[in-house]
Automatic annotation (TrEMBL):
Classification lineage: Bacteria, Bacillati, Actinomycetota, Actinomycetes, Micrococcales
InterPro entries: Cell_wall_metabolism_enzyme (IPR050570), Dup_hybrid_motif (IPR011055), M23ase_b-sheet_dom (IPR016047)
Signal peptide: none
Gene3D superfamilies, sorted: Glucose Permease (Domain IIA)
Signal recorded as keyword: yes
Top-rank taxon: Bacteria
CDD domains in the cross-refs: M23_peptidase
Sorted UniProt keywords: Signal
Keyword Signal appears in the UniProt entry: yes
Protein name from the UniProt record: M23 family metallopeptidase
Native source species: Janibacter limosus
Domain M23ase beta-sheet core, residue spans: 54-148
Record-level Gene Ontology MF annotations: metalloendopeptidase activity
Length: 165
């Protein structure tokens, strides 16, 4: 019997709140990148407490003025400025809210948006990725932040040591 430790692959779904299904029964569509998966500039890092440090979404590489589309069908429940940046929040049928920033948008609260339809353009405000430009995409159900990548069918692979027997 070998004494060499082996590695096991653990494929994790949502790190907080269980695996979240997209509201249409399919995966979310990428909000930038013309349907192709954009480069991930920064991953989700769940805060230990609601008010604690962490990264409550993902940052996707984008260009100023690039079209931003709704990841899934829903209703605009917020459009405004937070910390000097334009933001849009869409609430989906599942109750999950997707939030985009920085986004310049003319949508109004109550507007219905369809999956893949334009909701605005990437704003020129400095954000998470300065000096580069990115789109921050958050996902939240109730008070729980969720890893948006899981809505796209992306799973985080974690290597774990397996004790030899």
């Amino acid at each position: 019997m070998s004494t060499t430790p082996f590695l096991a692959l653990l494929v994790a779904g949502a790190l907080v709140g269980g695996p979240p299904p997209a509201t249409s029964g399919s995966r979310w569509s990428w909000p930038v990148g013309d349907g192709d998966r954009p480069a991930l500039a920064a991953p989700f890092d769940a805060p230990e407490e609601q008010w604690g440090p962490g990264h409550r979404g993902i940052d996707l590489a984008a260009s100023v003025g690039e079209r931003v589309t709704a990841v899934d069908t829903g209703v605009v429940t917020h459009r405004g400025r937070i910390a000097g940046r334009g933001t849009v929040t869409v609430t989906h049928a599942s109750g999950v809210r997707s939030t985009y920033e920085p986004v310049d948008s003319t949508l109004r609260v109550g507007d219905r948006v369809e999956r893949g339809r334009g909701i605005g353009r990437v704003g020129d405000e400095a954000g998470h990725c300065a000096p580069a430009t990115c789109l921050h995409l958050g996902a939240k159900r109730g008070a729980t932040y969720l890893d948006p990548l899981t809505f796209f069918g992306v799973r985080r692979v974690i290597l774990l040591p397996v004790p030899s027997v």
